[in-house]
Every structure is written in structure tokens, then in C-alpha cells.
């Protein structure tokens, strides 16, 4: 067995043997890394027999896949099959007899221009034909010739009376209504994904337990039960209601206790008497099906085993009977379900209340006049210890972590501790895991931002226990995924934004533009040989922003507060402060050239004028949508998250001072909002 045999297998599996680093230098993946990654993919390569068997697993099995995607107006093309005729039943109930011609190894059928999920019966097979429109619903479709703007918000940081110390969907609703009154058309949110109800200390929104369900701490039960009924079970406000930083453990415990009291009351008053609320809940459970049941069961089991002695927070450490997800037929699992059915139902109840909360928020945003409303945020992967990994184990590559290769910012590379979909599982299940995830993200929203959208084409995957530098890129079926995104975008009426920052494959941004997916232009990265690029040269098919949650705010950058924080943590680079001083002059020159500032640059400790100018600068771009981070509208210095830290910095804990409903009444916010509006007309 030669090294080339291993590399040939890797290529057949979709692994890239080489990659280009941030300096443009080609790098080769080591043979050891390829062995480990292939093993994690279920394709061992230790012996010639292994390699032969792995090639056999990768070879086409004949027959037809469960789903074929295509673009409307093109010819239906299938892998060669014994039959030359088939019956296509359209989603709306109509049907057509299809005739195929044989061309090499393909069956070529007629042009299909009817968008939707249709059923093809050919010989003894039934295949879903997903016919997609050419493009997603675009921001331009919603804008109708206008240049839109909106705000970007961290949900937990929003504030309202009675929120229990954690921003929620009603604070989002109040922010949206207030923003709409000032001309905003969108509210881009931090992820709403489910985390770990039994372990509120795991509150990073980009490390979800499941992307299919909500974080119940964002629920507002008053949406379902009304203020009087909720008030009857609410304890008096505590100190963390007014705190500047969220204390997640006590705040979450208090909110979940309130929700449990409401659940018990609901079971006694509504479920027992078959009220309209009870019917709505029953419908929600039925529609959620096994996905919802599996998630709720995980939450119940996680609470049980996390509370055991010793604590078992990772499902791989649970007893055998409880490791196999919803499909486990073990008697111990059946006994748990019988004994803890109410706990499982409680977690279904949490999802119901949260879904109704965000449904109300989006309805209010559109009702107030927003053209887009809420834009959800779809994280790149799932925590390997979470609900999806436990309940849908065959969906994921559990032995591989999503990350990034070494670059100028992270010399060792990154491993984000997240698991991603198996490409083989996607194709073998008719893309069901991907579709369920996209539908969850678009539900109750007018758009979705896809984190690290390059993952639609390739992911840097790191073997468990290996350094990030020992990873490799794995290819994903980009064409299929883009078509399904376009189809779901139209079915939900949702725009799609892709976070295309960092190492982007050649030609990828062009593919996004063709698919109607907007990229992201962030001011800090819009540079040309050190100088800042004028907004007129920013993209017309991207969303413009001053900054993101992972980057310094404008005030913090101008002050150099981000450098001070990283220096205190040993994360800064030599000469950063001096380079920042030069960058302030460069940025101010760009501001004055764009007509958003005049005169000399303000001092480093007086950033207000720079914040005003930066918002006007980003708003001046030709982008169809500009998003103003609330931290910049308020002129704050602290950024929501400092990459490279966990508990050394208060990540994902900062709360905004003004109530969401009154945020635009703040004089500085009003001034900056007027600047943005003027530049978007």
C-alpha cells in the first residue's frame, strides 16, 4: 500500500490534500492527518483491504438518490436507471408523464419550470425532485428601489421591565417597533438556538445544543398566558434584573422556575379542560414530531445525568441504554420515559412558548412597517455534547471538529468544538437534516444570516484530539445546497445573508451573488494596501456594517480599548498600539474623503465624532441593506465577544442600559440614526 493509495482515497472522499494559507503559500495535508480524518469519515485506510473496502463504500450504489435538485427551466437529469418513463406528481396535485433519453451514464428528461418539491415515480423508485427558483428572495426584492437599513442586536443584552435579567423576544419586538418608527426595516439578531437548559453556564450562542429549536430563556410567557396569569407566578425582581452583566446561572434558574410554575398551572387548567391553548400546544407537539420529542427527551436526560454523582454532562458518558438517541429500545429508556414523561412534556412546552414569542415579535415588526423584520442567525455547527448530536447521531461527523486553518490571526488554527453534517448523510437522506435546519432558521423571521457560509462548499475539519493545524477541507454539495436555500427562501419569504469573511474559496462570492445571497462588507476589512476603501467601492450585493459581535466597536477601536484588553490577557501583538495610531489617521482620511467628517481627527479618548462618521460611512455604501450594531449607535467601547477567550472576558453577558422600547430616544442614538437615514435616501 503506497502513500498515493491513501491520497487517492482521500480525493475520492472529497478531502482536499492541499490548501493555500493566508500568505498564499500552498500547504499539503499530512498523511497521518488524512488517515485520521478518513477513519472519522468511516473510511479506514490502514491496510490495502481497508482501502479497497472504503472505495467500495464510496462507489455509486446504482439506483436513484432519494432527492434530486434542479433549477427551474432546466432539464431533469438523473443517474442512469433501467426505466425510460416516469410519472411526476407535482406538489399541488397535478401530474405529468415523463420520457427520458439515455446519454452516457445519465437519463435526460424534459424541462421542468414548476417550482416546488415534486414526486417522481420511476420503475420501483420514488424520488423527490426539488425544483428551485434561480435566486433566493433578495434584499432588493424587499427594498423595491430603496436603500434599507436596520440594526444588529444581541438578544440577551436587550432590556425591558420584567425580563428576569435576560433579554427576550418581547424586548426584540419592542426594539423592532421602535426602530420601524425611525425608518428601520430589519433587526438582525444573535442566534436563538437551543443551548443546555440544565447547564445555563454554557451560554455561548454559537455553540448550540441544537439549531432546530429555541433557547427557552428568550421566551416571554406573557405572549401566551397574558400578564395577569404570569404575574400570579412571578417572584419579585432580583438584583440581576438591573445588572450590567448577566449572571446566567441565577437568572436562568429564576426564569425556568417561573416557566415550570406556568407549565404546572397549564397542565391543571388547560390540558385538563381542553382549552384553546391546550389545543394549540397539542398541535405544536404533533407538528414537531420526533424531532421535537428527541430534543425534549435529551433535555430531560441531560438534567438527570448532569445532576448525578459524579455529574455526566456529556451523553457519551451516560449508561449504554441512554446513548442511542430516540431510537433506543432499551427497557431502561422506556422506564425513564414512563417516569419522566412530564419533564419531557415540559421541555416541549418551553419550545411552544418560545416559538409563539418570536412569532409575535416578527408579526409586530412587519405590522410596524418593516420590509424584512427579524433576521435570524444560523450557527455553523452544533456542540458535540448536545441534543442534535445525541438524537441524530448519523447526521453528523462526530469524530471531527469544525474549525479554521492557521492564518495571520490564529497561527495554530482554530477548532471551534462543533460538529457538522456528514455529506454522505445529506445525500442519503434527501438533505433532510439541512432542510430541517434551514426551515427552523427561517421560521418566524424575514431573513437568515448564515454564519461562515463557506461551509456550504467546504469545511475545515479537525480530528478529535488533534491540533487545528492537522485538519483538512472536506467538500460539500454546494449546488444542491444553494438550490434548496433558494427554494426555502421563497417558501418562507426570507432573504439570505452569508457571512463571507475570512478565507473564501476562489469564485465563491460570485456563486453567492448568482444565488441571490448577500455577502457582508465590514468596515474594518474594507481596505486596500493599508488605506480604507471608500464606501462607493463596497459591494452592491453585500450588507454593509461598521463591525460585528467578534470585532471592536468603533468607540473601542478608536480608543484602543480592544488592544488594552487583549494586552492584559496576553493576546496582543507587538506594535499594535503604534499601528492603531496610524490607522486612526487613515480611517479619518477616508471619512473626510467620503464627506462624513471634516477637520482634524478627534483625540483617541474622544471617539464620539468617529462613531458618528463611521455609521455614516457604512451607510453611504451601495449595499441594499446597512446594519448598524446597537453598540455603535450607543457609542459603547466594549464588544460583545472577544475571540480567543472563554471566561477571561465577559463574553455574551453585557446588557444595554436603555430599555429596548426607548433606545431610539437616547439623544446620541437619535443623532446617529438621523445620520444613517440621511445616507440611505
Molecular structure report:
It contains 22 helices and 27 strands. The strands form 7 sheets. The chain has an 8-stranded parallel beta sheet. The chain has a 5-stranded mixed beta sheet with strand order 3-10-9-5-6. Strands 16-18-17-20-21 form a 5-stranded antiparallel beta sheet. The longest helix is centred in the middle third of the chain and has 31 residues, at 276-306. The protein is α/β, with parallel strands linked by helices and 681 residues long. Helix 1 (3-12) crosses helix 2 and helix 8 (248-271) crosses helix 9. The radius of gyration is 26 Å and the shape is globular.
- In the predicted model, the low-confidence regions spanning at least 5 consecutive residues are none
Strand order of the largest sheet: 22-19-15-12-11-27-26-23
Distance between the termini: 66 Å
Q: Could you tell me the mean pLDDT? A: 95
Overall 3D shape:
globular
Structural class: alpha/beta
Number of separate strands = 27
Radius of gyration: 26 Å
What profile does the largest beta sheet have?
Answer: 8 strands, parallel
Strand residues, percent:
15-25%
- Separate helix tally: 22
Question: What labels describe this entry?
Answer:
single chain, 681 residues, alpha/beta, eight-stranded parallel beta sheet
Quick summary:
This protein is an alpha/beta fold and 681 residues long. 37% of the residues lie in helices and 18% in strands.
How are the elements arranged and paired?
Layout: H1 3-12, E1 18-20, E2 26-28, H2 31-40, H3 48-58, E3 67-71, E4 74-79, E5 85-89, E6 95-99, E7 101-103, E8 106-112, E9 116-122, E10 125-132, H4 139-143, E11 148-153, H5 169-181, E12 186-189, E13 193-194, E14 210-214, H6 222-225, H7 227-231, H8 248-271, H9 276-306, H10 331-339, H11 341-367, E15 373-378, E16 382-383, H12 387-391, E17 400-404, E18 414-419, H13 423-428, H14 432-442, E19 447-450, E20 458-463, E21 472-475, H15 478-492, E22 495-498, H16 508-514, E23 519-522, E24 527-528, E25 531-532, E26 542-545, H17 554-559, H18 561-568, H19 576-593, H20 608-619, E27 625-629, H21 630-633, H22 667-679
Parallel strand pairs: 3-10, 11-12, 11-27, 12-15, 15-19, 19-22, 23-26, 26-27
Antiparallel strand pairs: 1-2, 4-8, 5-6, 5-9, 7-8, 9-10, 13-14, 16-18, 17-18, 17-20, 20-21, 24-25
Amino acid at each position: 500500500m503506497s502513500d498515493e493509495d491513501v491520497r487517492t482515497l482521500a480525493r475520492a472522499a472529497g478531502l482536499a490534500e492541499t490548501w493555500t494559507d493566508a500568505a498564499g503559500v500552498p500547504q499539503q495535508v499530512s498523511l497521518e492527518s488524512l488517515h485520521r480524518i478518513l477513519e472519522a469519515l468511516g473510511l479506514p485506510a490502514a491496510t490495502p483491504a481497508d482501502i479497497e473496502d472504503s472505495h467500495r463504500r464510496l462507489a455509486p450504489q446504482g439506483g436513484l438518490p432519494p432527492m434530486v435538485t434542479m433549477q427551474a427551466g432546466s432539464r431533469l437529469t438523473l443517474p442512469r436507471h433501467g426505466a425510460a418513463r416516469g410519472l411526476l406528481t407535482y406538489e399541488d396535485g397535478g401530474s405529468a408523464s415523463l420520457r427520458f433519453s439515455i446519454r452516457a451514464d445519465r437519463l435526460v428528461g424534459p424541462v421542468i419550470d414548476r417550482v416546488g418539491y415534486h414526486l417522481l415515480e420511476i420503475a420501483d423508485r420514488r424520488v423527490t425532485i426539488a425544483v428551485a427558483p434561480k435566486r433566493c428572495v433578495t434584499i432588493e426584492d424587499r427594498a423595491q428601489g430603496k436603500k434599507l437599513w436596520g440594526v444588529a442586536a444581541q438578544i440577551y443584552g436587550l432590556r425591558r421591565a420584567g425580563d428576569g435579567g435576560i433579554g427576550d423576544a418581547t424586548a426584540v419586538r419592542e426594539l423592532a417597533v421602535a426602530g420601524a418608527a425611525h425608518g428601520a426595516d430589519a433587526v438582525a439578531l444573535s442566534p436563538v438556538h437551543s443551548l443546555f437548559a440544565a447547564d445555563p453556564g454554557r451560554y455561548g450562542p454559537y455553540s448550540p445544543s441544537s439549531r432546530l429549536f429555541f433557547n427557552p430563556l428568550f421566551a416571554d410567557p406573557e405572549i401566551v398566558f397574558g400578564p395577569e396569569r404570569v404575574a400570579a407566578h412571578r417572584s419579585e425582581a432580583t438584583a440581576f434584573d438591573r445588572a450590567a452583566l448577566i449572571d446566567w446561572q441565577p437568572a436562568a434558574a429564576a426564569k425556568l422556575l417561573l416557566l415550570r410554575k406556568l407549565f404546572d398551572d397549564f397542565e391543571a387548567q388547560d390540558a385538563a379542560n381542553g382549552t384553546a391553548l391546550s389545543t394549540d400546544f397539542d398541535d405544536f407537539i404533533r407538528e414537531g414530531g420526533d424531532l421535537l420529542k428527541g430534543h425534549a427527551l435529551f433535555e430531560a436526560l441531560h438534567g438527570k445525568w448532569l445532576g448525578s454523582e459524579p455529574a455526566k454532562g456529556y451523553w457519551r458518558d451516560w449508561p449504554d441504554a441512554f446513548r442511542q438517541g430516540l431510537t433506543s429500545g432499551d427497557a431502561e429508556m422506556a422506564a425513564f420515559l414512563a417516569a419522566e414523561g412530564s419533564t419531557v412534556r415540559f421541555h416541549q412546552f418551553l419550545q411552544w412558548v418560545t416559538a409563539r414569542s418570536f412569532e409575535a415579535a416578527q408579526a409586530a415588526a412587519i405590522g410596524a412597517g418593516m420590509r424584512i423584520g427579524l433576521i435570524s442567525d444560523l450557527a455553523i455547527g452544533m456542540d458535540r455534547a448536545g441534543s442534535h448530536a445525541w438524537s441524530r447521531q448519523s447526521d453528523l461527523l462526530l469524530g471531527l471538529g469544525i474549525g479554521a486553518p492557521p492564518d495571520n490571526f490564529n497561527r495554530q488554527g482554530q477548532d471551534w468544538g462543533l460538529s457538522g453534517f456528514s455529506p454522505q448523510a445529506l445525500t442519503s437522506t434527501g438533505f433532510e437534516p439541512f432542510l430541517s435546519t434551514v426551515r427552523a432558521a427561517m421560521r418566524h423571521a424575514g431573513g437568515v444570516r448564515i454564519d461562515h457560509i463557506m461551509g456550504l462548499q467546504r469545511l475545515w475539519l479537525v480530528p478529535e484530539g488533534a491540533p487545528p493545524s492537522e485538519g483538512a477541507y472536506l467538500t460539500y454539495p454546494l449546488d444542491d445546497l444553494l438550490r434548496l436555500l433558494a427554494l426555502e427562501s421563497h417558501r418562507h419569504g426570507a432573504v439570505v445573508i452569508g457571512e463571507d469573511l475570512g478565507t473564501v474559496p476562489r469564485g465563491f462570492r460570485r456563486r453567492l451573488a448568482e444565488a441571490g445571497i448577500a455577502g457582508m462588507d465590514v468596515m474594518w476589512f474594507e481596505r486596500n494596501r493599508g488605506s480604507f476603501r471608500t464606501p462607493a467601492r463596497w459591494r452592491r450585493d453585500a450588507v454593509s456594517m461598521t463591525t460585528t459581535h467578534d470585532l471592536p466597536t468603533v468607540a473601542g477601536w478608536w480608543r484602543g480599548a480592544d488592544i488594552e484588553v487583549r494586552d492584559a490577557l496576553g493576546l496582543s501583538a507587538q506594535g499594535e498600539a503604534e499601528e492603531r495610531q496610524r490607522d486612526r489617521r487613515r480611517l479619518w482620511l477616508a471619512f473626510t474623503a467620503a464627506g462624513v467628517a471634516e477637520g482634524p481627527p478627534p483625540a483617541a479618548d474622544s471617539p464620539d465624532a468617529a462613531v458618528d462618521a463611521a455609521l455614516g460611512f457604512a451607510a453611504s455604501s451601495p449595499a441594499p441593506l446597512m446594519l448598524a450594531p446597537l453598540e455603535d449607535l450607543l457609542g459603547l467601547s466594549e464588544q460583545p465577544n472577544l475571540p480567543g477567550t472563554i471566561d477571561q472576558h465577559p463574553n455574551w453577558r453585557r446588557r444595554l442600559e436603555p430599555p429596548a422600547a426607548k433606545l431610539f430616544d437616547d439623544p446620541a442614538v437619535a443623532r446617529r440614526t438621523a445620520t444613517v437615514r440621511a445616507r440611505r435616501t
